[in-house]
Amino acid sequence: MYALKWKEKVCATCTSAECLLKCQYISFTRHDEAHGEMMKVVRGEDSRVLHECATCYACEEYCKRGNHPFYLISERREGRGMFTAPRPITNQWKNMTQMQGKYMVGQVKDKVLSCCFIPDLGILGTGEIFKDVASAVAFGAEFMCPAVHTHFARMSVIKERLPIVIENLVKLGVKEVICLHDECYGTFTAIASAYGIDVPFKPIYYMDFLLSRMREMKDRITPLGIRAAYQRPCSNRLIPDKYPLVKEILDLIGVELPAREYQGENCLCCGEILRSISGYKLADDVQERNLNDMVQTGAEYCVFNCPACQSSLSEKVAKKGLTPVHIINLCKMAIGEKEREAR
Amino acid sequence: MSDILKALIEIVGERGVSNTPEEIWFYSRDPGVLTPHLPDYVVAPRTTEEVQKIVLLANREKIPVVPMGNGMSLTGLVIPLKGGIVLDMKRMNKILEVNAMARYAVVEGGTSQGVLKACLQEHYPQLRHSIPDAPPTTTIAANAALHGQGRLTQQYGFNSEMVTGLEVVLPTGEICLIGSPSLGPYWFSRGPTMPDLSALFLGWLGTTGIITKIGLRLYPNKKIRDVELFVTDRVDLIPDILYKLTHLEILEDVNVWFQPKPLMFQGNFHITLYFTGDTEEEITFKRRMIWDALQEYMDSKDGGFMSVQYMKEMLMEMPQRGIADFADVPKGGGFEYSGPITILSHFPQYAAKVVELAAKYDVLYASSARLISGGHCMMFSISFAFNRNDPAMMTRVKHALDEATAFALEMGGIPWKPNFMEQKMIMEKMDPAARKLLQMIKKNLDPQGIMNPGNWEVNT
Known about the structure:
Chain A has 343 residues and is an alpha/beta fold. In chain A, 45% of the residues lie in helices and 10% in strands.
């Protein structure tokens, strides 16, 4: 079984404790307090962090020393037999994402377009932008990044399934895996690395692919001339170096991304997992603050990266007067392949 | 051509009668597991007067008459056990009146759920009726006659309790109005403040008369409907959870279901909660009340709300088409269920019995319970899927269902829409004086014993 690669000494000598001081869901005001609680986690002791962590992934980004506080919290929770979400929800996710031999693979050669286990991604990965890879699709639990189980503190599921997913992709004979799901890329890079799991292919982040393709099709772009707010997904916390791509892509297609409070490191969760874990009060509060913040910027569109965020928030942003749209569809609109989403 | 066939053609015209083998074949069976039996004639009347003439003819000739809606009970209630005439009511499908202010509709005896739903959606969008989760071609009168349930049963009781008046052709041929329409033009009350004579026809499965018109309560159709889905893996908690939910008095419909396939549903009990409102504020308020009522189960990690985004479209359908999807899991598209009416506190025992029977008879199960009248009772469906092309599997399902009925009776439950054998089991267990009363009523209403014979027959 794979084990998390982390160093107690790194936490013990940490002078910032930003992993917890920056946390949006557990309140810490003093360094010694935050550091003390994290050290309890490190030592395998009980800590309020184990009971209050909302699983937003953000501490993975806050920790600049790469010591994986979130994975460690999740490991400790599982080790103590704790459930973050209700037990039946946790088990449902485990069952729902079980490999059952019901997958789809297209005409794959050296590249595969991974749609994870999210049907919506199959439709997004089509058209002129994806014309060279759209037929090389892979979809199903057999190709699903198991990172979602981090929310449920079931790292054992990740450690068990991720090597199999990687092996399934390897069996396709591919050199490159274009990940349409943000979380897949985060899993094949950040999580796999944290657990020492070998990834014998090159994961390609779809936004890198998108930016490259849009540059190639620059002549076809008609700037959209709109203002948008971006909903950054939790999994993007695993790959913060990829966050700037959003602005680069949106700049290229004439979409203004006005500054707002809940962006970048300070972004807020879409709320769906919060609802599962702790109930509506926290989820409603987070969503309300997030959406009001979007509205205040004068944004006309809410741009999504993750289909799960989009599913969770689409109806709500629409009720606030914003049009929900995936960033790929925004690009398709810019090259005239897709009508503007109705407002 | 026989004299009876000629007489029937004289009543309803040539296109309304058939005794050709290919047509009576269809009317000899229903989609369940019971053995088919051929009728002698199929007749499709268009008016009450035609029904009356057919019944008078049947009396004269002592021919059985089996009134039929869409034949979807699954328990063989319209299989002509002793041959005779199957009276297909589907040509009597007019909506006769909608009294929007008094919130009732009057429809002919063969009017389908879908026709009324479409009419209300188009002309009276502020009104709705209690739609059962059956194909929209099922009929309103048949559903009420077998004490069916629908989307408003949790709030307002069995669909039969929503009847506001009847026109019935008695087994002896008289046309009889029941309730307020017997006194005047309004169909607002089935009985009160008079004796409630509608009880002579509801639950009798067509053995005491033929419903040719039916009045039905309509209810406010709120602008917004929404749904939440609560899951728990502890069956012992279900009664308490339902008790807390029904205490809220805000739920339109509550269904509790569990099934082993697909895998995502395995091991959990799911409670689908429907609620309505005219504004977003009302919906939010109700949603929060629901979540608050169940917060303790979230805190203990024993239960939680699952995201319904991906399932919402399916869950919001009325009727819900996906409800019979599991019939295709073993291939062959068959399913039948026993649906006893029972008290909520027995949910765990019934749930255990479903699993036990499925294992014993090697069949696939699914179960869904619908709450009735704010939780006074529930219909607990014990459903088994089968391959129609596999007689051995069908026999196993039949045995499992028989055992389920016996269990329900042991537990003090009442089998719903019982087939003729289950009716016998009920009557054997029934208080003897009640059984005698049932026999007296039936004998007095149908002295020749022509109405759907084989059903509710007391052995003397």
